[in-house]
Design a protein that fits this description.
The protein is mainly alpha-helical. The chain has one domain. Helix content is 53%, strand content 0%. The protein has 6 helices and no strands. The radius of gyration is 28 Å and the shape is elongated. The two termini are 51 Å apart. Keywords: Actin-binding, ATP-binding, Motor protein, Myosin, Nucleotide-binding.
Length: 102
């Protein structure tokens, strides 16, 4: 406000703050917050979908099946809870044509 005064003396008493103040260095927390906000903005603009993959074995060899490994993946991916929610009636299915067009 004082920088826009018509009196030159008053303007000289209140220099613009951007010219005299140095910007604070960017911290890790600031970067994380900025990136998280950008990610949320991007997700709100689109319709993301998720494909969960399960590896049948650690060797990635065909024909091998490691049951304990598969059960562990199912547990940690939250697939059992997801199935229970769907059974309870909270299911959302997109038309296949719309899914394919994405």
């Amino acid at each position: 406000m004082m920088q826009s005064s018509t009196i030159p003396f008053v303007r000289s008493l209140f220099p613009e703050q951007t010219a005299t103040m140095k910007a604070r260095p960017t911290t890790g927390g600031t970067k994380i917050r900025t990136q998280a906000n950008e990610l949320v903005e991007k997700l709100m603009c689109c319709q993301p979908h998720y494909v969960r993959c399960i590896k049948p074995n650690a060797n990635q060899a065909p024909g091998e099946w490691n049951s304990s490994n598969v059960i562990e993946q199912v547990k940690y991916l939250g697939l059992v809870a997801n199935i229970e929610i769907r059974k309870a009636g909270f299911v959302y299915r997109r038309e296949f044509a719309k899914f394919l067009s994405r």
